[in-house]
Amino acid sequence: MGLPRAPEARLYYRAARQRYTDAQWLLSGDRTTGAVYLGGYTVECFMKALLLASVSPGLRQELMGEFRGSRAHNIEWLGRLYRRNVGIAVPGAITQHLSRVASWSTDLRYATGAVNQKEAREFFESVDAIAAWIDGRL
């Protein structure tokens, strides 16, 4: 696990780590909806950290400006930004995990009830794999 050098990337990386810890705690307490909600934010923040850590300082500022509005929560959009601006393909296995997590939405903040435990655990398998891959790239 490496802390990104770019201050903008560190901001998102630290947020991702905190949301990850919070989400794991919620999952262990069978609070699956909150866990999946924070797990999605974990991936969003990790993706933003990776992207910002991988580009030039000038492009970082431009990208920070794009991290506004609802599309900035879209995991698939963040993956496209990474491929376009960094020029490195995301490994196939990670692409599959990103596809699973792409079902996440900030609308979960309004959801009542509980996400099925099996679905939540499968979601977290993807969150874990993505987090490990990004940590290995930083």
Describe this structure in words.
This protein has 138 residues and is an all-alpha fold. 70% of the residues lie in helices and 0% in strands. It has six helices and no strands. The protein is globular. The termini are close together. The model has no long low-confidence stretch (mean pLDDT 93).
Q: Could you give a quick summary of the protein structure above?
A:
Helix content is 70%, strand content 0%.
Q: Indicate the low-confidence ranges by residue numbers.
A: none
Main beta-sheet annotation? none
Distance between the termini: 7 Å
CATH first level: Mainly Alpha
- Would you tell me the structural class of the helices and strands? mainly alpha
Q: Can you write the helix and strand succession as a string?
A: HHHHHH
CATH fold label: Four Helix Bundle (Hemerythrin (Met), subunit A)
Q: Tell me what portion of residues adopts beta-strand conformation.
A: under 5%
Name the assembly state. single chain
Fold blueprint:
Layout: H1 7-28, H2 32-53, H3 57-66, H4 75-86, H5 92-101, H6 117-137
Helix pairs in contact: 1-2, 2-4, 2-6, 5-6
Which properties best describe this structure?
138 residues; 70% helix; Four Helix Bundle (Hemerythrin (Met), subunit A)
